[in-house]
Amino acid sequence: AGLEGDVGPLEASVVAQYEDRFRYALEQVKLIFPDLDEKRLSEADALNQIVDGKLVPFTLTEGQ
Questions:
Q1: Domain ranges of the chain
Q2: pLDDT category of residue 7 using cuts at 50, 70 and 90
């Protein structure tokens, strides 16, 4: 249980840090480009991917 018990909290910590940094990057974009459409910018999500020039929810493809 030792190391295995540490994995869950570590995973949660990594996810929280990733999401915080993504939000921080979005805040920087808003400052640099103040005229951006807030509604469009709100479509950005740390768990989206770009497929054929569109934002779509991230999914694992076969082999990943």
A1: 2-57
A2: confident
